[in-house]
Here is the input.
Amino acid sequence: MQSRAAIRYSKAIYDIAHEENSINEVYKDMSFINELDCGSLDFKNLLSNSQINNHDKKKFILSLINESNFLTEKLMDLLIQNKRVEIIGDIARSFIQLYNKHNNIKEATIITASPINNEFESKILSIINIKDANSVNITNVVNPNIIGGFIVRFDGNEYNASIKQNLNNLKTELTN
Here is the structure.
């Protein structure tokens, strides 16, 4: 859950990026920051480390982003000034949500025991059958505990076709 501060910063940067016609460039930067924040414990540790000064954190983050947008740099400066650099991941997530909402892009999560390929992704999209979206961003989460099959989460719904779920259903039927 993002903080109110992160939501306010993301709305402000979204509005400014929209006015400056650089929304796609800032989206690219925010997507990269979000990937770092979600996928790297080292990145989270960097943001929360009080021994590293905020200017060094900014330099490090911007060095990772290939050709960062000037608005992303300005946002980092503002976060440094307000001593809020540690919420950049939440700001990125909130920005992506705003971008997706304004561009009618839906989010779906597919949980599988192993990574999926494009063909399987296409089959899942046909099962979901989305009528009112321009596109769908699919996130594949690998969880070996489901043994096999898949779980799809989309638009507040969940479709569980995992082997673990099928085994649990069978166990329930046998015990009743």
User: Anything to note?
Assistant: The first strand starts at residue 105 and ends at 112.
